[in-house]
Amino acid sequence: MIAMEEKIWSYIDGALPADERAEVEILLQTDSKAAMLYEELLKLNEELKGMELEEPSMSFLRNVMEEVNEQTLPAPLKTKLDTRIIYGIAAFFVLVISGWLIYGVLSSPSASEDTTPLFSMNFDFSKLNSVFLNVVICTVSLALAGLILSFIDGKLKQNMTQKKGS
Amino acid sequence: MPHIETDLELIEAVLEGDTKKYAILVKRHQKLVFSLALRYVKKREDAEEIAQDCFVKAYKALGTFKKTAKFSTWLYTITYTTAMTFLRRQRLDTQPIEADEAYIQIANPDSSFDSNLIERKNISILLEESIQALLPDDAAILTLFYKAEQSLEEIGSSLGMHANTVKVKLHRARKRLKERLKMVLGDEVEDLI
Q1: Which has more pLDDT, B52 or A163?
Q2: How many folded domains does chain B comprise?
Q3: A57 belongs to a structural domain
Q4: Domain identity same for B83 and B103
Q5: B161 domain residue, yes or no
Q6: Are residues B153 and B125 in the same domain?
Q7: Domain that holds residue A143
Q8: Mean pLDDT over residues B20-33, rounded?
Q9: CA B193, CA B126: separation in Å to the nearest integer?
Q10: What is the CA radius of gyration of chain A?
């Protein structure tokens, strides 16, 4: 009975595939109990469709708009993601990697010494400290510059949106 | 015939600085948001507070709204989370009347479902009261399914459930509702539903 009721509900909702739908239609024609249940559920379905929604108080809209007007104008998501910042970060990484490669080439033995390849992967660890320090300083400075720029960018955009809104 | 702006057009206008358009969005969705909030709290003032909070939150986050989704689905998600936050904050005892308890209540002559109520034969009031007696999630699912015309997937997305769970809950809610109405109305149910 429960399975039949669920099936009839699904039939009423139009959620059954064609074959199962045909099955239910046959059942409704042949089984009087099922047909009665269908009528009952159909009426309840209509009642549910026609049920009234609750209405908030008359001042609701005014209250919402008063509170909304106190808020900063929402900014679209796309303005928050400035592509220039992304390109800046990408350029920074390209620069660091290129610098590293150039350093590798320049610090490798000269071409006249044929015993070693042009680009040596045998890193001179004695130079690591100074190189590492340089890279860290560069990274921190650039990241800081990026953050400051993005902060200024955000502020300018916010000002522009507020001007537009007012 | 005047052009009725879609939700998306209104959102675009608001984001471009025309905040007054937000009032149209609020007016369009306030009844459903308020009704949905009423599924979780009993007092109208509380439901109104939730609904108001929901619209302000939606406004503040309007820039993050993905235009691929339906605005209403997004709004109902905010309503649901706002209602949950409200309940947690208020620490209200929102334990719903379980089906079994509800039947006991109906059988009790001192209960609110007395003969006067049956005499009224007002199916819409009875229906509303019967829905209110369901589990809040079940009542919310019924509201979203019948009044917001949301699909099972959309309801699942709003309430943070799988579509199959919504389907099961929807069946359960309608079954309980039918049984409850039968208990309240007795033989008269045949005339009314």
Answers
A1: B52
A2: 2
A3: no
A4: no
A5: yes
A6: yes
A7: 77-165
A8: 93
A9: 11
A10: 36
Q: How does residue A38 score in pLDDT terms, banded at 50, 70 and 90?
A: very high
Boundary residue ending a domain (B41, B58, B90): B90
Closest in B23, B52, B174 to A67, CB measured? B52
Q: How confident is the model at residue A22 (pLDDT cuts 50, 70, 90)?
A: very high
Condensed to tens digits (0 to 9), the pLDDT of residues B92-125 reads: 555 554 444 443 333 343 444 444 544 445 677 8
Q: Give domain status of residue B1, yes or no.
A: no
In angstroms, the CA A8 to CA A45 distance is 11
Domain match, A81 and A160 both: yes
Is residue B123 assigned to a domain? yes
Spatial distance between the Cα atoms of B80 and B157, rounded to a whole number of angstroms: 11
Interval B78-92: pLDDT, tens: 999 999 999 988 765
Q: Based on the domain organization, do B63 and B14 belong to the same domain?
A: yes
CA angle, residues A110, A111, A116, in degrees to nearest 5: 85
Residues of A in contact with B62 (CB under 8 A): 74
Residue B118 phi, psi (nearest 5):
-65, -40
Which residues in chain B are contacts of A53 at CB distance < 8 A?
31-32, 34-35, 143, 147
The stretch B157-169 carries a mean pLDDT of 92
Chain-chain contact of B63 with A52 (C-beta, under 8 angstroms): no
User: Whole-angstrom Cα distance, residue B189 to residue B183?
Assistant: 9
User: Nearest-CA distance from B65 to chain A in Å?
Assistant: 8
